[in-house]
Amino acid sequence: MITPVELRHTMHQKPELSFKEFNTTKLLIDNISELKSASLKIHTPLQTGCLVEYHVNDEEYLLFRADIDALPVKEETDCLFKSCNDSMHACGHDVHTAILYGFLKYVVESRINQNVLFLFQPAEELGAGAKKILDTKILELFNISRAFALHVIDEYPEGTVASTRGALFASSIELDVEFFGVNTHIAFPQNGKNAFNALRIYLDMIDKLPLNPMEPFVYGTGKIVSGDVRNIIPNYGRAESAIRSLSLKKNREYLEKFREILEGIKVMTGVDYKMTEGESCPEVLVDGNLYDRAKEILSKKYNFIDCGYKMTAEDFSYISHIYPSFMFWLGTGRGNTVGLHNSKFLPADSVIEQGTGIFAELFQAICSFDW
Questions:
Q1: How many other C-beta atoms lie within 10 A of the C-beta of residue 357?
Q2: Phi-psi region for residue 299, left (φ > 0), alpha (ψ -120 to 50) or beta?
Q3: Which residues are tagged catalytic?
Q4: How do strand 144-157 and strand 166-169 relate by DSSP bridges?
């Protein structure tokens, strides 16, 4: 049976994208099966990922979750276990998985008298994995009282625990806006309807949309597609974007404002449009009681800070809206901050033992607390 660090290295060398984590899933199942514990049962509700059940009594379950997928990012580090393909664990999911795997080993080998579910979840990067797990209704088979998760980040010094009451991660909606015009030679613009100009006007007006400074909101466009050749006015344009706020309800209110802007552009330019929503997720909610208990316990050994909300998004949010949850950032910083989704993001292996230890202390504190 491999160690958590060895698991991390193997995953990092052979990263797999969302819903394609077949070898990662096999790696997990093969090694967890070697524990040969009568208390363990492995469920596979989806084609990738797994839910490991540790059952020792008829009481409630605690759910701990890690994400297992990678990103389509080409790694630019010189580590000995560098990715062997064009994908990368640039968001630290290899570390998350190794931490949960180490924590699972701790629970089994210590013969803890508490039911636990260990969710190795696929496709967090698509914002779809957690929801698909919930849609299978497998979690409804268990009496789950609380749920826990972490996310590494190099913004904070290594070993720092950062969380907050209420919204920790933002709600997100992926948004594609397409424009449909009429192409023509640039010498005869009167004969066409310029889809690119309509797209440009749309982006300019979004930037000028009045915002309430007391309501955090982010709109970002990462990809624009338009045009074929330099001397033809484009008949098509597309902006691929995402919006973030602290509630899904607020995001949808902004979508209606976008639609009003697009209707005005259609009247002004004659260019039609289509709005298409992609994956969405609500905000991650941290339960106040769990936060207070975690702060009380973890502050004794770790640098515990109230970090407030972040405009990052995480599909653990779906779980946090069903079960009282505690999620936290685990610092990995050593003075060279590059940020998440970066080709040089590489937490040290020492973070794995720290994360496992934090899960263990948090677990013991929650189990011993009289709720």
A1: 17
A2: alpha
A3: 67, 125
A4: unpaired
| Digit-coded pLDDT (tens) for 72-124 | 999 999 999 999 999 999 999 999 999 999 999 999 999 999 999 999 999 99
Read off the DSSP letter of residue 240: E
Q: What is the pLDDT of residues 186-210, one digit of tens each?
A: 999 999 999 999 999 999 999 999 8
Residues 6+ apart with CB under 8 A from 147: 62, 63, 64, 65, 316, 319, 320, 322, 323, 324, 325, 326
In the chain, what are the domain boundaries? 4-168+283-368, 171-280
Grouping H, G, I as helix, E, B as strand and the rest as coil, residue 300 is coil
Report whether 305 contacts 183 (CB < 8 A): no
Neighbours of 316 (CB within 10 A): 28
At residue 54, what are phi and psi to the nearest 5 degrees?
Answer: -110, 105
Evaluate whether 270 touches 201 at the Cβ level (below 8 Å). no
pTM of the predicted model as reported, rounded to 2 decimal places? 0.94
Burial class of residue 361 (count of CB atoms within 10 Å of its CB; 0-12, 13-18, 19+): middle
What's the CATH class of domain 4-168+283-368? alpha beta
Q: What is the CATH number of domain 171-280?
A: 3.30.70.360
Q: Is 289 left (phi over 0), alpha (psi -120 to 50) or beta?
A: alpha
Give the ranges where the chain is alpha helix by DSSP (H).
4-13, 22-33, 93-109, 129-135, 195-207, 248-269, 288-298, 316-320, 350-368
